[in-house]
Specification:
heterodimer; A: alpha/beta; Thrombin, subunit H; Rossmann fold; 3 domains; about 25% strand; B: alpha+beta; OB fold (Dihydrolipoamide Acetyltransferase, E2P); six-stranded antiparallel beta barrel; about 30% helix; ion transport (chain A); transport (chain A)
Chain lengths: ~450, ~575
Amino acid sequence: MLQKTYDKIDSIGRSILSIKAKGVHNKELAEVIYPNGDKAFAQVIAINNEQVTLQLFSGGFGVSTNCKIRFLGKPIQVGFSDDMLGRVYSGNGKPIDGGPELLTDMVRIAGPSINPVKRLIPKEMIRTGVPMIDVFNTLVRSQKIPIFAKAGEPYNRLLANIATQTDADVIIIGGVGLKYDEFHYFRQRIEEAGSKNKTIMFVHTHRDSIVEGLMVPDLALAVGEKFALQGKNVFVLLSDMTQWSDYLRQVANAQDQIPANQGYPGDLYSQLASRYEKAADIDGAGSLTILGVTTMDDITHPVPDNTGYITEGQFYMKDGYLELFGSLSRLKQQVNETTREDHRSIMNVMARLLSEAEERVKAQKFGSVKDDYSFRLLDYRKTFQKELMDPFRYLELEDALDLCWDILARYFKKEEVGLSSKLIDSFWPKEGQYKILKPHNNE
Amino acid sequence: MDMQKAKGKVVSVNESLVGVIITQGAVMNGEVAYIVIEDGKRLKSEVIDVKTGQFVYLQVFEDTSWMKAGDLVEFSGLLLAVKLAPGILGSVTDGLQNPLYELAKKEWFLERGLEVEPLNNKTKWHFTPTANKGGFVTGGDILGAVPEKIFKHKIFVPFSLQGVFELIEIAPEGDYTIDETIAKIKDEAGAVQELTMSFEWPVKMAMPFYERSVPEKPMPTGIRILDALFPIAYGGTACNPGPFGAGKTVLQHSLAKHSQADIVIIAACGERAGEAVEVFKDFPKLLDPRTGKSLMDRTYIVGNTSSMPVAAREASVYLATSVGEYYRKQGLNVLILADSTSRWAQALRETSGRKEEIPGPEAFPMYISTLISAFYDRAGVEIFKDGSSGSLSIIGTVSPAGGNFDEPVTQATLLSTGAFWGLSRTLSDARKYPAIDRIDSNSQYPSLLKKEEVAHLLELLRDGKSIASNILLMGEKGITDETYIRYHKAELLDAVFLQQNSFDEVDGVSNPSRLRIMFDMILKIIDAPLNLKGKDKIRSHFNFIRQAFLDWNYMKIDDTNFDEQNSKLLNLIKQRAYATEDL
């Protein structure tokens, strides 16, 4: 296709540039050509007559009014082939692991969504070995679910654990705004787990431009989707989507868009949704599961808030624990009926009792906890946290369920827990005979 | 008659907002236009603003990649419309009425520029005429009927036709497609028009009521807390705002399955695709206990999910509403579940921002409240010429930012709806589903219970809440046994009656007669005198009752053990009622 070069640059900002040009396509890929011959990518994001706005992959710093812009007559694409497995790419799709650039088929990014009738109802549990997930918020193939956590929590460790402990055919890591040591951790963890040959990384670190960071989820998801269409079960890990949203805010701001909440653009919801909705179990093909990270301080902040409305639940990590309250798997009901007959009921009862215990914690501050039942609830809460909430304790689902019964039996009478008589008859441990729970030391 | 249709050229592109200069003809605000891009694909769009200097703004219902300044725009001269005819029930379409199963035959992905016939025009429907040749008709009159799934679908003279027409020809009983001529009418000037079983209606225009009446008959939903405390009526409106994770979706699905409406229309607007998929893949397998037919036979789904083009969200809500009004005209009780109206409002906000309109609160456009009120006003009870009636009820989900009900969309919705079901994160964290706030929710419609019965329950719930805060401050020992009993009665009412396991086949739905049986039992417990001393004994007493009641909730009403359990519960209440000692 004919490539046109223009040199009438009007303005240069931190991440966008505007130029006079004709016959340019919306979303067309372009090159910034520096006077010394260096090149960097850019993309058309708005057109007004001959005024064309581009976002700059390498940022606006160092771009001069005597740079030229060459429009390449094609949209942004990403390579796709099995040879990409084991490799590491940047946010503009170039290899950064020292390996050779591959000549592969190119596929479109940010394509349309799959027709809903081609989606299957998610129905297959993914066993992670993490009790708070398997028992209380079961992960399901094709789910889209982020970890909500403060910066500094070990969320990337959990992310890498889940991806490598499960049966994914292909793992794609999309790192947005990673610190160098996080990037290094992912690489190391994947290699240790022997998963390198089924993993592709697209990595944006803090030294790269924000526009490259913005591209990472699209590249990761486009490649993931292709593998899924070939029948593979794909895991895409996206960390951290809060930084991604922040980049989105910066670019929107540079375009003078009217901000909605806390400076974020009004389309933050749609932007996040069009990425997360790529997760799907495809009729006649494979599946794509998305595990994300959303760093946050406050759940009502626009990023976790919008994310929560989009994703199929979230895992809430606090003080190194996976919390019960605040965590949710919307798809668990699709699978936890067929795991074991007590699964649903015990999950609900454990949660209800923990919620009662939380009330007692509040009451304790007023010094109003004086009765035996309340004291038992408080002990129950401590044991629950210690035995079940550690995200790095590995337990098979069945063992974790037995552990729940053990904990109930230690602190409560049968009629106090509100379980059906039928389940109690089958599962209530005999006096002092716990299957998993270790005997009490201080009792 | 054929006016020359307008043409134009693209001058600006900013995501879904495209500026166009008119090069010939006249344009109408709201008319449909097609932008022809380089590869020849025609992207459907709608005029949303006409500016000076022959400049108009279009919102494009498709991805605008690869569009460029100078691309040709062809205007249609027609408003965005829905095709109304037999064949809508049981189908799944996008927000522009493209059937998704038909689209899937062409492409796996929702590629842009694809349009297919909204309704099957090959299917033959068995038409039986009821109007007589030589008679006089007007818009909305009935020409005949065809059987559609679970009911008799009336064939109307298009509602848009005004004045009196002579029916000069009507087809004999037989099988016809929706596009075949079944009647000819002549106006006073002698002009003849051919009518088929289908016609179009502009989706943004409310269909006029023949005669409007007020909603006053409760519509059973099978959800106890709603039917008992915060009911919706046939023709009424309700909203269920709530933070994410509080159970909006599960509630909507439960309403879609169990509400005693004739037709249920689900407008999945800007929400997760997976949720719509669950409905249209599960419903065909589920039986509607009232008709014995598949649940899908009474359902129509409009899916414009969150990753589909944003501009079509608005269209999807109006499309659903127009179809709802049409089936109300059929004399049926229709329920629309709109999930979520906030996403529609956000779509308007995106477009408004790109047009650089002066923003209102939280950057929503100033006119958002007017649009929301006008939307809910399309619900209502309609009385027809022959005295029969139909109704359209709307239940809208609201997804307030940060779960904060002060935001503009929630506030506008509260002003426009008759029932408010506020979902609470505190309740959902405590797994008290449905997590509808027991104290702050309300409804202006009549309940399946008597007024004084509702008041009785609400009083107990309020008492329970205030005692709970006393216990928090002073501990169980700080309150009297009598107060403690009152507290446990409120807790029991919540646990066994207001809470409901929507994933259980039996507990998930309580029809009006079962609701009555359960309420009577609850009432016996609440009103029974209880002479127990000591907090432990009181707690244990209510634990036993709760256990027995929950077991009862999971039994089918015609199970043999249902009556046994009933007696067991009565005994538990009686035994303890007069006992001074623990038995």
